[in-house]
Amino acid sequence: MKRGYRYRIYPNKEQINLLEQHFGSVRFIYNRSLFIKNTMYSKFKINVTEVDLNNNLTSLKEQYLWLKDLNSQSLQQANRNMLTGFKNFFEGNGDYPTRKSKRDNNFSFQVPQNYQINLTTSKIYLPKIGWIKIVLHRDFLDKEFIKNELVTKQVNGELILDQKLNKEFDILKTLTVSRTSTGRYHVSILIDDHIPEPIPVEFHETTTIGIDIGIKSFAILSSGEVIDNPKFLKKSLKKLKKLQRAVSRKKISSKNRKKAVLKLAKHHQLIANQRNDFQHKVSIKIISESQAVCLEDLNVSGMIKNHKLAQAISDVGWSEFIRKLIYKAEWYGKNILRIGRFDASSKLCNVCGYRKDDLTLKTRKWECPSCKTFHDRDVNAAINIKNIALNNLNTVGTTERACGLTGIGQRYEARSHSIY
């Protein structure tokens, strides 16, 4: 099973310059290769392969001599990433690849091999850059596993884990170096321990939980538990406006403007970190306490087009929270059940099945005209999500028909023992 471990690094001034050169060069190669591929196909109907693009790197290095000072593996990885983008597009898993811009604040490059980690002094070696201080705040592999299963070397009494020496084990995969908009540098190490994903556990109604995610409350569980929405962005809007005004008042390209931009970026980063930490804690709690989790398939990208709700929806971070639930369920062998986005969850009485079609968003509580049950809108929706998902599993026919998820965009069908 593959997992990524992200650590912060602290390069010196010289290493920062080298890292920035790699960020720019990888972006340059990506855009250049994208132009070549699009041009060759549009004019000559020739499909350019990865081998062709890598061979072109040789001539590019003669034309742009500064490319010789960079890690060739990282440049080749840029070509591979571009072609992967085309593959995902034609498989319906992404948009058509476009040019990368430095304004996107997406600074990263990959090191597929030949990196080293000094476990004694907490440093990492990157080709063409050198040894950089790294904070290993958690183990990416068990110390006993490293000692017994991997090849290490001793240099001046220091224990070093070399990716090249362990290439045959295929455990230490690609390393990604990135920089945030606040100027923080990180490395993400991809580890494949070759341990198969656990088989999803058996579940029944009592060990299944339904979740209705919302805006007023972050999540409402079918058990009746309500998780409040911390609203990190909304609470920081006043300060963000003040920092944004400070940026606007500074002269363009001045040092003071750069300082003001950095302060603004740091506060945005703080909000993102708060939201990320909160979602991690909630998702692991839900996954740990249940064997199956029932979710509603939401069209988040369509919902944020409503300008009255866009900011609130973005502040909650629905898509990222669901993504965390799904991959943590895979880690621990739990089940994820999805229902269709058009299934009536809020308007349906979970007791008698009466459908209240005139229910509006303003109505938070309502009484069923049929059975006289008084409902909390969100708790009722969570219970219905659970009931519909469990009923879909017992419906005769294919899973897709049972769940009503036959569209291309609705990939997360509910199945009894599968994770999507």
Can you describe this structure?
This protein is of the alpha+beta class. It contains 12 helices and 16 strands. The protein has 2 domains: about 190 residues, no CATH class; about 200 residues, no CATH class. The protein is about 40% helix and about 20% strand. The strands form 3 sheets. It has a 9-stranded antiparallel β-sheet with strand order 2-8-9-1-5-4-3-7-6. It has a 5-stranded mixed β-sheet with strand order 12-11-10-13-14, with helices on both faces. It is globular, with a radius of gyration of 25 Å. The two termini are about 15 Å apart.
In summary, what is this structure?
The chain is 41% helix and 20% strand. With 420 residues, the protein is of the alpha+beta class. Strands 2-8-9-1-5-4-3-7-6 form a 9-stranded antiparallel beta sheet. The protein has a 5-stranded mixed beta sheet with strand order 12-11-10-13-14, with helices on both faces.
